[in-house]
Amino acid sequence: MFTPTTYPPFIFLFLYPLTLLPLVLAQKLWTMGSIIALLISLNLLFKVYNQKFISFEGLILSSLVFLSFPTKFTLGMGQINMYILLLIVLFIYFMNKYKDFSGAFLGLCLMLKVFPIAPIFYLIASRKWKTIAYILLTFILGSLLTLIFVKTEMITYFIQKIAPTLIDSWKGDYYNQSLTGVLVRFGIRNNRELIRNALELIIAVPILWITLLNKSKDKFVINLTIGILLTLNLLINSFSWQHHFIWLLPSFFATFFYLKRIKARNYLYYLLLLCYLLVSINLKYPLNFPILIQSHVFFGSLLLLFIQATLLQKSTKKIKA
């Protein structure tokens, strides 16, 4: 009622069953489904790392997830993020089991939210063509269903009016914690497209290069690679609202359990905790704080990206040695 729909037309097929129910009941079912999707995601992530969900460590990590503002924001706003998170986690879970059909879950993400697209780079770099084939097959089937059941006018409107804004948006709201939001808050106006593109390249090229060089078949390294691409995706989107950062959950898990795997020094855990705090807090009155602090989620994610890049670079050197 107060914001335009920016989802691809396929979303209407996903949401259609709810329209058959009274609004209040549909709202409750949607929220319950979101919580269940989050719990399933957490359970699967613990299984990926052979850890027990019902354990002291599981309780601590799960509590941190539920206390974070992106989680509360997603549930409070009735966003689709938990369902997208579940699809991302299912992709990671089945990819760890060497199942090519894991690509179908990533393809469904793209049909519903146009996110995440960056992990496809890893699939290309590692030549997982069958997994990519499942992504394409899902995309084709979803597109055919959309053409059959969704009005042509709505599809055309999305392509002509909505899709361009997903790439070239300049939203300076506090809740936009992508690079674009940071630049707008700092008042960058002259040559801002050039500056944004240059900074995106500075951030993205080293990450993609590290991903390309890393040939490890160790699942901890692979999951960390997917995690760093998820982090990168959020940072360089034209807009990443705070509730979108619930999608960092697989990235945080991959980093935490990788640190445990290599028996990392304590300071790295403290840095990871700092990343969590910067991403998870919310400023009730953001305009009362300096511009730098208003972008705390961006800088927390950027620090996480740096930690992940450092770990991946070291793992690549070990493989070469």
Count of distinct structural domains: 1
Please tell me the overall pLDDT: 93
From the N-terminal CA to the C-terminal CA, the straight-line distance is 58 Å
| Shape field | globular
Proportion of residues in extended strands: under 5%
Low-confidence stretches: none
What structural class do you assign from the helix and strand content? mainly alpha
Number of strands: 0
Determine the number of helices (DSSP H or I, runs of at least 4 residues): 16
Q: What helical percentage do the residues reach?
A: over 70%
Radius of gyration (Å) = 19 Å
Order of helices and strands: HHHHHHHHHHHHHHHH
List keywords for this structure.
321 residues, 0% strand, globular, 16 helices, 72% helix, mainly alpha
How would you concisely characterize the structure shown here?
The chain is mainly alpha-helical.
Question: How would you describe the overall organization of this protein?
Answer:
The chain is an all-alpha fold and 321 residues long. The chain has one domain (11-320). 72% of the residues lie in helices and 0% in strands. The protein is built from 16 helices and no strands. α13 (249-261) runs antiparallel to α14. The longest helix is centred in the N-terminal third of the chain and has 26 residues, at 23-48. The model has no long low-confidence stretch (mean pLDDT 93).
